[in-house]
């Protein structure tokens, strides 16, 4: 019974976080527990536990005696998220490249191949699979840092990336050939074990995405 409850809780957590990240639950909106109970087919106690967990991670606000709200968005918040991502992901990329081995190279190349094919579809005007595109983008960045040898860093990075992704999904734009070129350059630097070069391109890549997203925000 305990394991079943934990499984239901985990499923509810992932579903609600997905809907926050992808804008199905809009920023700043009040979260109505009865509506969510029906949508996610779960209990009120599970919902409350899930929302408190998401509040601790920064996806939900829970002001005392006022219920739950989806975390609002702002340019200042996005700037802070991007700055933290630069610090954490560039560090993790350096460590991953220094620890690089054949298995890691295979993961990076495979992840980039999938992302590159999706970027080509976007360049051809097919934007029907934007969620898949962002998943492939995440898989490539995650593959690059996957050999950093720190579970804590990978966990923190995953949360930061999801917060960054939430802003990108609000504006649903991409930087086309510029971003694709940066992905290719990071791949090349990683495979030649150029940790400094790869980290510099990554920093440029994150800041370029930040500027693009802020300019596109209403």
Characterise this structure.
There is one protein chain. The protein is mainly α and 218 residues long. Helix content is 74%, strand content 3%. Helix 1 packs across helix 3, helix 4 crosses helix 7 and helix 8 packs antiparallel against helix 9.
Q: Uncertain runs with pLDDT below 50, 5 residues or more?
A: none
Spatial ordering of strands, largest sheet: 1-3-2
Please give the share of residues in helix. Answer: over 70%
Proportion of residues in extended strands: under 5%
Rough outline: globular
Structure classification: mainly alpha
Cα-to-Cα separation, first versus last residue: 47 Å
What is the overall pLDDT average? 91
Radius of gyration, in angstroms, nearest whole number? 18 Å
Q: Give me the count of strands.
A: 3
Strand/helix succession: HEHHEEHHHHHH
Largest sheet: 3 strands, antiparallel
Give the count of helical stretches.
9
Task: Identify the notable features of this structure and list them briefly.
9 helices; 3 strands
Summarize the structure.
With 218 residues, the chain is mostly helical. Helices cover 74% and strands 3% of the residues.
């Amino acid at each position: 019974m305990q394991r079943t409850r934990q499984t239901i809780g985990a499923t509810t957590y992932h579903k609600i976080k997905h809907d926050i990240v992808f804008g199905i639950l809009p920023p700043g909106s009040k979260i109505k527990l009865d509506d969510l109970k029906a949508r996610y087919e779960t209990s009120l106690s599970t919902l409350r536990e899930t929302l408190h967990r998401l509040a601790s991670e920064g996806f939900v606000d829970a002001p005392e005696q006022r219920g739950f709200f989806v975390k609002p968005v702002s340019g200042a918040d996005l700037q802070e998220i991007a700055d933290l991502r630069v610090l954490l992901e560039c560090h993790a990329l350096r460590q991953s490249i220094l620890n690089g081995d054949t298995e890691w190279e295979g993961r990076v190349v495979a992840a980039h191949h999938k992302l590159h094919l999706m970027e080509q579809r976007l360049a051809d005007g097919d934007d029907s699979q934007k969620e898949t595109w962002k998943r492939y983008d995440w898989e490539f960045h995650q593959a690059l840092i996957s050999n950093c040898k720190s579970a804590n860093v990978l966990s923190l990075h995953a949360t930061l990336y999801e917060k960054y992704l939430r802003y990108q999904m609000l504006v649903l734009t991409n930087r086309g050939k510029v971003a694709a070129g940066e992905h290719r350059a990071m791949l090349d630097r990683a495979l030649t074990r150029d940790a400094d070069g790869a980290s510099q391109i990554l920093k440029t890549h994150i800041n370029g995405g930040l500027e693009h997203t802020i300019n596109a925000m209403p």
